[in-house]
Amino acid sequence: MVDRGGSVVQLMKAMGLSPETVERVSQLWGKSAARNGGRRHLLLGHLLDTAAVAELMWDQFLSPAFRQRLDEISGGRGRLWFMWVCGIHDCGKACPAFQAVDAVEAASVLSAGLNWGRLPTDRRKMWRHDVAGAALLKPRLIAEWGSEEAVGWVWPLVAGHHGTFPSVRGIVPPHREVQGRGPAWAEAQRAVVDVFTRAVGFADLADVRPVGALKKAEQLALSGLIVMADWIASGGRMGRGLADAGLVSFDEAQRCMEEWWAGLRLRGGWRGLPLPQTQLAPLTDRLGVIPRASQRELVERAWSIPVPGLLIAEAPMGEGKTKAALAAAEVLAARFGLDGVFVAMPTQATSDPMYEQVLQWVRTFDPELESQVALLHGRRRFSAWWRAIWEGKPRPDSDSDDSDSDGCGCERGEADLGTAGGYDDFGAIDEDADYGMAPAEPLTGGGSSSQADGPAHWFLDNKRGLLTAFAVGTVDHLLHAATRTRHVMLRFAGLAQKVVIIDEVHAADVYMRQFLVEALRWLGQARVPVVLLSATLPPAQRQLFVDSYLSGVLGRADVHEPAPEPTGYPCVTVAYGVGGRAVAETSREAVQSWREPMPVELAWLPDTEVSGARVAEAARDAVADGGVALVVVNQVARAQAIYAELREADFHGQLHLLHARLCAAHRADRTAECLRLMGPQAGADRPERMVVIATQLAEQSFDVDADVLITDLAPADLLLQRIGRLHRHSGTRRPEVHSVPRVLVTGVAAGRDGVPRFLGASEAIYGRWSLLRAAALVEESAGPLSAAADPHPAHARPGKGWSIPADVPALVYRAYDGDEICPPDWHEAEAWEHCQAKELKRQEKAEEFLLCRQREWAFPTLEGLHYAGSRAATQEQLDAVVRDGDPTIEVVIVHRVPGGYRAYDGTWLGVHGEVDDDEATDRLMGGTVRLPARLTSAAEAELRPLPGWMDRPWLKYRRALVLEGDGTALLRADRVSYDNVLGLVVVRE
Which UniProt keywords apply (predicted)? Predict the structure, then answer.
């Protein structure tokens, strides 16, 4: 061990290095003055800064489980080893290829006697310092560690710190670009590694050798933590670098980085969660619920599982699965040393209420932890709670003007360290920008301050969100962590220290499922507990998820461990690996649902017209004597038409329209209003007569209670999800006519030959085979579709109906098993073949972007992980990677008026669209709307941000849809307008 207090110059002299070598190493730069706020920073200074950040991360950020693994592979010296592996990442900057990049900085290096010949001027051909570091370090580690296995998993950590992992062939450099000319370079490069290694506390490089190896998924997480340490250290030196090696020491690095870390407010989550006092305390004490049998079962399985594993909870809609999952997460985190939770939701709309629920839950551990809960999706700006916590806005439950705040999240008089010295800590660091990383959009208000319990805005970059201790967001964030994209390791590092909960897991289609399966493999290998929730999970999917997780645990791609059939419904399936073998179990005995089986009447309402006139008539008739009807259709234009029909017919009652082509503000307001009127707390606010027309937004995680449901036909599991909105809450008062829940199934009609004819949009979305099977199951209850010709279908005599939730497992099983259930003349086999061919193509398309090829899953290191390059450079491209279908884009609606522009709500924007403050920006962005896919090409070619948006971070990359004086815009052959009630309206010219 050495005295860390001395400077690196003193250390080099103590190590017996020649004066020439001391001088040369003292001139090697790590951050140029031109890109570091005007202050040069030496290479050894940056390495020590990163090690100092790593030490802080060990103490205040890493989970107990990850610290334990690092201790295991380092012989009990995990803290020191983590500091070393984080700091050594930039040793490759000690090469001509990097030192020659900046002519000003290169002058002092040349004058010290480190020369180089002619180097490539094309940066695409220039040897990168991340790969150079691996090329320099690998032979030294082999020589001094004497273990190819140990070296084999460590060198990719250095080579991959800029976001991609090259193959071993990729680190064979042009000799002169790494070694330079003569022995001087070799001596300097050796000295950089040795001096840094001694400065952090190891005796020499041989002393660093690990005694074991991390699994590949753990290596990926460690790589992300190295990137995190590098980025934080780079930010901490902006404008205050050290150009004098006599001032560079580990002690100085610690002081500087501690100050920076405190200003950024970085921290982990629980940082060591104690075990709950009783088995059910996480439910009864933490969440304040009287446990239902299904909730008890999930929590008890979290207690009994011997090692981290996969838990799949299947229970009826409204059973309380998410609360049970949070309680189980507390148990799993406490037992296995995890430090937070990520809750993955199917959509942005379902993420917002879950964010509020997780906020309430986290506060029960420590009120200060609410500032560590992130909402991860592109429209989080419209969440009042997110704005309150992360931007310092007034809280939704407070009437205070928050007069002590400047409106930007900073208390008056406090320094904004997050943007001090012109440093943008939300974007790429300097060398990342050279490698094609687009800068992230910073928050318009709110910076870091010294207040320890404030939110850490550093996490808000779209690559860093999962590093926050507690996060709620769309499932895309989980899927992104399974893609072969740059900086995937940052996303995975966040997941690897948490319990992961995936709600509505059945919502992933066959394309998205490929990424979900890949993510489960990596999470299984990283020993991350995962909780999957579903009301309607086909058995084949349950088995697929079990096998995927276990393949990660066992490190093989061909694992198949049959999961026993559930003994009842609700049920819990668990999967884990112990002693090198796979285990899959289900609930030992039937679990009783909290609600008694509910008979649901089904009847046909034949209609395949987009106009939806018959549906509108049925909805009006259904609530003629009072009640609340929910209409769920599969097409925005159809929803708009049904609403228009009812409005023009002077419907007497409340009428609401909810779909995906409403602007952000309207959609948020209407969702909140529907929840207020139909949610569990509606009470006296529940209207006497109301119709809500919605698209698939109302299909899941939409906690409303309808008296009658009119729904377009959908696959059976999704149809059951929609039925889950019926008679959902106990104690709801309803008219006598609605004492029994009733479903009218539309969007389908009988053709001349009796074969179902589907709404075109439905078949395009779901495919013919799944719709045919759903129709066959409905026919068993509602009678033949061909006989459903009653002109007043709302009063049609129903069939025997379904019993919900008792019939759910059998219906889902029959919808997806191999037995034919359709009449022969429906040609089910042909539809099945077409479905299989289409799904195979979608699977093959997804495989192009998966993080790891199946045949390489068992490879022990990250070497060559990015074998085909790094896909998806932008966030829009990344979103397109994990969601199949034609790409879509969002635009911001503005109106051109005499003298300038106005926002969708009339807010004046200025001559060029200028926005003066955050409040005006909020109102403007409330007009954000997603265009249909067929308009994407035209929008990309024709729409741009307004000139006045260039200095507004939230706006400068947003395309404006400028509506002219007549309220329309022409995008090639389509006339586009926005109606404040109907939403976006597109008409072909």
Answer: Antiviral defense, ATP-binding, Helicase, Hydrolase, Metal-binding, Nuclease, Nucleotide-binding
Contact 98, 235 (CB under 8 A): no
Q: Is the CB of residue 349 less than 8 Å from the CB of residue 290? A: no
Two tokens at 498? 């948490």
Task: Give kind and range of the element (H or E) at residue 752.
Answer: none
Chain center to CA of 67? 24
DSSP for 807-850 reads: THHHHHHHHHSSS--S-GGG-HHHHHHHHHHHHHHHHHHHHTTB
Distance from C-alpha of 809 to C-alpha of 316, rounded to nearest angstrom: 10
Mean pLDDT on 727-753:
91
pLDDT score recorded for residue 415: 27
Cα 362 → chain centroid: 19
**DSSP state for residue 535 in the 8-state scheme:** S
Q: For residues 728 and 717, what is the distance between their CA atoms, to the nearest angstrom?
A: 17
pLDDT tens string 684-708: 889 999 999 999 988 877 888 999 9
Question: Nearest Cα to 455, choosing from 344, 368, 363, 354?
Answer: 368
| CATH class entry, domain 600-802 | alpha beta
Domain ranges of the chain: 8-264, 600-802, 890-988
Cα 473 to chain centroid, rounded: 5
Which pLDDT does position 486 carry in this prediction? 86
> What average pLDDT is seen over the chain?
87
- DSSP annotation of 204 reads S
Q: Element (H or E) spanning 584, and its range?
A: strand 581-586
Please report the pLDDT score of residue 379 as a whole number: 78
Of the candidates 457, 517, 465, the one whose C-alpha atom is nearest the C-alpha of residue 493 is 465
Classify domain 8-264 by CATH number: 1.10.3210.30
Other residues' Cβ atoms within 10 Å of the Cβ of residue 71: 15
**ω into 276 cis (within 30 of 0):** no
Rounded Cα distance between 480 and 654, Å, is 41
- Other Cβ atoms less than 10 A from the Cβ of 367: the count is 10
One-letter amino acid for residue 564 of the chain: P
Do 8-264 and 600-802 have matching folds?
Answer: no
Give the contacts of 512 (CB within 8 A, at least 6 positions apart): 475, 479, 882, 883, 884
pLDDT at 568: 85
- With beta carbons less than 8 A apart as the criterion, state whether 927 and 909 touch: no
Q: DSSP assignment of 213-278, as one string?
A: ---HHHHHHHHHHHHHHHHHHHHHTTT-----GGG-BHHHHHHHHHHHHHHHT---SSSSPPPPSS
Interacting residues of 836 by C-beta distance below 8 A, sequence separation 6+: none
Identify whether 442 is preceded by a cis peptide bond (ω within 30 of 0).
no
- What would the DSSP string read from start to end of 128-166? PHHHHHHHHHHHHHHHHH--HHHHHHHHHHHHTTTS---
Which pLDDT value is given to residue 799?
Answer: 57
Residue 786 pLDDT > 80: yes
